[in-house]
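Late entry, evening session. Most of the bench is empty. Finally got around to the prediction I had been postponing all week. Sequence below, unchanged from the version circulated by S.P.
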Amino acid sequence: MRHCLTIIFLLLSTMIFFGGCAGQLEQPKKNNGEQYEKVRLVMTANGTEKGIETLTARRFAELVAEESGGNVQIEFYPNDELTGGNTNEAVRSVTEGAVDLGAYVSGTMSLLDPRLEVATIPWTFANYQEARRVIDHSGGKYYEKILSEYGLVYLGSTHNGFRQLTSNRNPMRTPEDLKGMRIRVLGGEVYRLFFSALGADPVPLGWSELNIAIRQGVIEGQENGFFLMQSGNLNEIQKYMTVWNYLYENYLFVANRKIFDRLNPKTQELLREKMREACEWSRDYLEAEEKKIRFRFAEEGLEIIDLTPEELEVFKEKVRPLREKLKAKYGAEACKAFRIDMEKNFEEEGGK
């Protein structure tokens, strides 16, 4: 009898043991989204559906939703839809917390503080790789510091692109070729002063008015990046292009500080990490697309001029007094952060 009871006990113990193991094995894997709070954030930008900031924002939203298992949702509105097309009001809505996130060029963000436009000092960067390194190191830290003064969290930066010059009047290889030329520019001070220093006639004009103004002969030339020129089909109404990378412009992605601070640390890190990924993706995308766009422009008849180092130096010398004026305006701290007129070798400094 004792022997039978022992056998029954062992059988029951074995069943319980394997039953417990089976229960553990059958448990579904924990959904990664369970680590994140359920939250919906609203993001604004002034770009069109084809704009690089729009593409970046949508990529960011996809990455965040995927990683969070759908718990963290970014609701994106391009064309400043939330403020009826008013960009200044849109930036204000982010600083005041009416909107959670925003994406605007540094020139637009400089409405908050002129120092945010420091990277637009002519010929700050020689190429895209240099721009990436500087902004991802000391430049980004500088943006973070300045934006925090206005209740904003800096999340990342992507290219808007190097700006080139096009014209209908004549090819442009020397400052004399620009003398008296009516060139459409953005409203920022840097653009106006730059072309005035070269003897041109800068005319501030909205993007929506540019195409008609060129067709009517009111404007003879304009300056923009390849990506934006393509979206406006400007190669179809301009004859000559000078590639000189005279000015680099970028988009800044920001969050309202009070709203960001209310998120749990895991969600905050998610937003930072996925914004970095989205910005890297869009930088790669824009650089690759510019090469394709340039090839297509040339194939379709746009005369493209690449300045020699000697020709470029003549332009740089002409605007040297302006560069010194802008450096004084933005200050030594800003210029150091963006390595203006400094060696940009991070490897020797341990990546600092």
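Two things to note before I forget:
Residues 182 and 219 are 5 Å apart (CA to CA).
Residues 1-31, 348-352 have pLDDT under 50 and may be disordered.
Will write this up properly tomorrow.
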